[in-house]
Protein: Acyl-CoA dehydrogenase NM domain-like protein
Amino acid sequence: MAPHPVAELTSPSSWAMVEDKFSPFAKETLAKLIAFIDAEVLPATRIAHAQIPADPETRWKTVVPIIAELKVKAKKLGLWNLFLSKAHYPQFGVPLTNLEYAVMAEILGRSGPMTSEVVNCSAPDTGNMEVLARYGSPEQQKKWLIPLLNGEIRSAFAMTERFVSSSDATNIRTSIRQEGDEIVINGHKWWISGAGDPRTKVHLVMGKSDPNNPNTHTQQSVVIVPADAPGVTVVRPMHVFGYDDAPEGHCEVKYENVRVPLSNLVLGWGKGFEIIQGRLGPGRIHHCMRSIGAAQNALDLMLQRVTDPSRKTFGKYLYEHGSVVAEIAQCRADIEGARLLVLSAANQIDKARAKGALKEIGIAKFVVPAMACRVIDRAIQAFGAEGVSQDQPLAQAYAGLRTLRLADGPDAVHMQQIGQRELRRAPALAKRTAEIKKKERVLMERLGMKAHA
Amino acid sequence: MAPHPVAELTSPSSWAMVEDKFSPFAKETLAKLIAFIDAEVLPATRIAHAQIPADPETRWKTVVPIIAELKVKAKKLGLWNLFLSKAHYPQFGVPLTNLEYAVMAEILGRSGPMTSEVVNCSAPDTGNMEVLARYGSPEQQKKWLIPLLNGEIRSAFAMTERFVSSSDATNIRTSIRQEGDEIVINGHKWWISGAGDPRTKVHLVMGKSDPNNPNTHTQQSVVIVPADAPGVTVVRPMHVFGYDDAPEGHCEVKYENVRVPLSNLVLGWGKGFEIIQGRLGPGRIHHCMRSIGAAQNALDLMLQRVTDPSRKTFGKYLYEHGSVVAEIAQCRADIEGARLLVLSAANQIDKARAKGALKEIGIAKFVVPAMACRVIDRAIQAFGAEGVSQDQPLAQAYAGLRTLRLADGPDAVHMQQIGQRELRRAPALAKRTAEIKKKERVLMERLGMKAHA
Amino acid sequence: MAPHPVAELTSPSSWAMVEDKFSPFAKETLAKLIAFIDAEVLPATRIAHAQIPADPETRWKTVVPIIAELKVKAKKLGLWNLFLSKAHYPQFGVPLTNLEYAVMAEILGRSGPMTSEVVNCSAPDTGNMEVLARYGSPEQQKKWLIPLLNGEIRSAFAMTERFVSSSDATNIRTSIRQEGDEIVINGHKWWISGAGDPRTKVHLVMGKSDPNNPNTHTQQSVVIVPADAPGVTVVRPMHVFGYDDAPEGHCEVKYENVRVPLSNLVLGWGKGFEIIQGRLGPGRIHHCMRSIGAAQNALDLMLQRVTDPSRKTFGKYLYEHGSVVAEIAQCRADIEGARLLVLSAANQIDKARAKGALKEIGIAKFVVPAMACRVIDRAIQAFGAEGVSQDQPLAQAYAGLRTLRLADGPDAVHMQQIGQRELRRAPALAKRTAEIKKKERVLMERLGMKAHA
Amino acid sequence: MAPHPVAELTSPSSWAMVEDKFSPFAKETLAKLIAFIDAEVLPATRIAHAQIPADPETRWKTVVPIIAELKVKAKKLGLWNLFLSKAHYPQFGVPLTNLEYAVMAEILGRSGPMTSEVVNCSAPDTGNMEVLARYGSPEQQKKWLIPLLNGEIRSAFAMTERFVSSSDATNIRTSIRQEGDEIVINGHKWWISGAGDPRTKVHLVMGKSDPNNPNTHTQQSVVIVPADAPGVTVVRPMHVFGYDDAPEGHCEVKYENVRVPLSNLVLGWGKGFEIIQGRLGPGRIHHCMRSIGAAQNALDLMLQRVTDPSRKTFGKYLYEHGSVVAEIAQCRADIEGARLLVLSAANQIDKARAKGALKEIGIAKFVVPAMACRVIDRAIQAFGAEGVSQDQPLAQAYAGLRTLRLADGPDAVHMQQIGQRELRRAPALAKRTAEIKKKERVLMERLGMKAHA
Structure:
């Protein structure tokens, strides 16, 4: 039997660890996805870039034509909304597990950020769809979720705020308060991905509805805000290194006396923190799996560069110099280990939902983007100055991955959480040690030995 | 259902990745092993150390009484020869896969080097039993394999030589030649593990029987040499960071005109390289899995130390200082990733034998011992000076793991091999890139775009 | 006595190592420079950025008004051409040693790339002035060097080529040939810094005038090309992590049948390699010293961020979390060590010219930019997402420093050269060891001891 | 002029940084020291090792004959007590600065721990001599300091305690109390270097004389205790990895109702903390400089190994494989940077005493031993298994250096202190930033620009 295409592309042994956890449908979908990307998406990537105008005004009003075309094709092929597991979202989901999607997400990440959009699996829409599918009212679902699931509109998620450290959610200052049968929103956010896109019709906005509640986990609420509501101002795009990531962008946005009907409240007053928690877990692992793909792509580019005869120096291929081969080996090993961590986390989500996989998600969150940065950085070095330029995808990929070490909680926060979880194992370990010591003493007495101080 | 003890000890999510690949017998054996180690082996560890005399003479003539006792118990419980998979050694093996044993080997490594010996799974006996089981004549098997399988004798494997870099097997100088119906061996080896042990009755000696053969892979042969054959001299024990690892030791050994009957040749003339190759693959993965256990144990000790109230400084627990929690998180992540790499390699051996798992074994070989060294080093730092002393197992564990980065091929050799394997993927990648470029050109023409230079 | 301002800004103990090597003039100039930057340059930095239009066309036609103003002021203060040591360039230089300038270059680097330009010390002009001062004919000096020294024009240096690895100078393909009393240049370069600037009036172009000469070091020549000569086309700016560094830029440039008079040849036919070598040494150390300043600035920003009360999370200052303090200590130590390496290299250039300081320059070249990248990366992490944005100078500084690990020879090339130099010490070491062994044997005999094998 | 021998041995450019700070006497002494070590000490090193018996009893009763001989020779040559700077100890010192000694200490460290002893510059005697020279009464000096200065006796310093984390001095439990005209000492110490040596005649013991004093810095006192006083028991040698470092050793010592006359109190009641602080600063820098030498020696050994024709593998020298040359370059760079840090710290001690050089000493303390460990570890890898054995000095050097990362305060403590010192710079930086911002606003107004939010 021919090996599955994923094994050819990446790692047969990682595939061997999970193959028997894959349904026939998942295997078939995966093969289709791989074929579609090679045949349709990758040949269109540079064209898509060229279709975004350089002009600072018009580039934010653009719907990239070739992406729109590809979306139609992907949807027709059933390569659509693959992230939404039917097991967790029976009404809207596709029959794929998180583990199965994790492998597909790697394939998506391998071919650049555009591919996720083509199959309607790109952030922040994915997380927003999950929120609406899980917590939205039927009315909210009809108005916002269905168009999102159909890829007709896009969306933003507004949490991070300027001037405060919003990795501590209690620092959030945006105010959300009821006035009659309306909700009034005032706040100053930034890094709102997608807010620059002309297709973005809706923002999910998190703010404080009960800022003095002693329970800091019920101070927050989430409200649906139409992108064109009066008082919503997209101030400017934030740059990531020198990239503005138009047309989606990561924008600074002001909400000034924005008014929406009460029915735009999601789930209920004070449910903001709960919604966020539910949203972030799977989102992080999707990012991680795409990061594996990005690292894999960097390594593949590096392999082609160092074996390119036109790049010889001093009569030798680049790979024949110094530590290049060792670096390639290190890249391969780094990717393999990180991939297995992500697959294991995805498997754990399938077994115990995101809540039961916090440890695995947390580890992946601080290991994988940092790993991908290292791999891409090595690849950049192999490419020389071209590596940092617009002629290769490496520098932009690096910028994105580097930012991922800050987004959804910086590395340090996740490391603290994982470290604290480990510390909780200490009492059981101490008890076990005490029991062993006790048996040791009994044994020593039996043997007539004197215990050491 | 209560979780399996292994999940409690180590990592539920790693266990979740492999649990459905475990037979009921394997699960039961694993639980029994865990219980036996806690109840019997760990309480005896310091006693075993105390039973080795300090005197430089007698310490090399000692059979440690408590280990001998424990071996009897382990054998009775069926915790015996777990490394020898029936699938690969139908005549002598136990019904366990490599993957199943890999998890058990971690448990062995977690409790120190002694435990492997107690269950008759310690190097170099394991590799020697594999050689004799696979390549030995019935007579050789009867005389040497059966007593080894029974734990009645121990053995040595003599490959590494003094004065040459024997990681290149063609540098081997030991001469093995036929004289009449005898074989005469002359050579100067060192780092011969087990050669110091009074129970060691047999050496498998590798040397050159056909040094001028242009095929450098058929110059070598392997011969069985009784440890007490005239001409065999154990010169001295080599030290590893000050440790002599008595009574087994890693010894310098001279073979001067040692004569053995022709029937002591293993497999045939010129088969030495083939035998070595077969021997090293699984051996490396066993080492790796034990290394995971050693790292896990170091982390567990560290957790207990940094939460110990009697170790507070400046009014705070050690874990409350600086980067301790982050280091613990890093240790946990390092161990998780490495464990999955080893499990994946073991699974690959089960699927495609060692030959089909060279990549996975090679990656584990250079990743895992280095990872374990890092983890143990961090644990040492948490213990202060006590960490480098005889009162904790950390420094000795470090010395062993550090040496593992040199044994069975230094890290650099494995990295070169893995890197070179990766380079072989380059032509297929270049072909794929060319195809995508071609499609891109077609698409650009269709859209009336000018291709960039 | 009040400490010198440089000691206050950076490191008293580094200053103590070199203070007595500083002339009174140098100390005075340094103090003036520090005061000028604080009073005039730093308050103007964001304004200068704002004066560069976003429009993709006009941004390349801009002379930034405030920089032009500052240049006038700096020149009047004598803060001008500080890089050009009178000791090496008696006719044109200022009375400063390389060591003295090295400290000033750190101060320049500390306040961003603009400051170097303000005091007419920015690459590639510095290296071009050195070339013209050392190798230029009086006519060439009058026409091009004097306006450069006066800051009236800017310049470019065209070496790196597209499609080949030009870190091996023999790969250069640009053709430079004589036709009658003209020189004809054909070539395709990129990463030509300054080529985008409207003030750039001249390119120094390196190419092959004798490509088949068996002596690969005499194949190259350098020619002066007016920027507006027919056949010179600036194709596009190259991006560095999304930055185009307008208006200077790093451009792709084509030279198609460009014709210049014979008198534009620098030094003579076949002298290109010699010119390059002379040009790169001091240039590299200037880059390194500026990099120290960039790292120092990142650390200073980080210190302000982690002590900012408005950035508290979970009730604590950022510096009270996890490993922040340890990271700051590491940054400080990294900077100190690197600074001393650069000072030592500059001192060595003063003692033995660049040729006698190749080792020191080479070490600094691969140590310092990598160090600065690490420090800046840590600072980015402390700033959260803002760290990668246009609101802080960190991401752009990182992009520049990262590129420096590729420019003027990638790290690997310098490491190979330094490593090879070290290897040359081996024979003398082996001889010394042999002599010691010989004395050891004599001593052992005298003491009646048996030598170990 | 021929270069100074130190420049030949190590780094001409480091030497160039400090040469003009060296007196003629210091230069002459340094040259004499280098010559003496090559001619006399290095040929005797293995002999000295062989003169220490393996027998666990007698090895602790040995005065190594060849070391005793060499001490006589060194003293005669004036290579004696070089660490004791006359500037700081006018009565007893030699006319050398700390900077001058720092270079000599590197030379000592380069040739192994024995050389320091030969020239009477080995810890803990050095620190104890400093304590007695600075704080001792004339009577104490006559009785203990003079014999130490003469090299007739050796000494121990008893601070670290078992069962507590004594890096926090307030955890010290040893009790020192007055009874009549006697002092009674009770305590349980370990890691007491030198306590195992038959020549050790005196312990300086730190303990608490006023444990309830609210000023935690005046609770401690230091008392002189004769090594043979009743109640002093050397319990056992502590091992460092597997080394016992006989005959000096690092021992566990009990003080049980030890009685000494009141006149054995050093400096006065409650002066213990002050004494310790004065003792540790220069001691740390001596350790660091010796560590540079140890690293340099490891690199020199590595260079010889990788160029040794008898160590070729696969037809190539070791240095021709993979990343060996790059690693050598990294070692060289690591050593250069660290050496300059230590020289700079020593220079700072000369300028501002140890108290004014806390930052520099602290940085060196956590940078240098870790650096030396890395370099030695790389060298070990180049040597293969021989690198961890008793046939090369590398593993033992590693063990010593690794322990140095824990001794005199673990790395983390020094990093915290340096990091905290840096944080103190934050207010001045914030003030400077505010001033620049203010000027920026003025300038923007003048230019009619709108300030960014």
Notes: Chain B is about 50% helix and 10% strand. The first helix of chain B runs from residue 5 to 9.
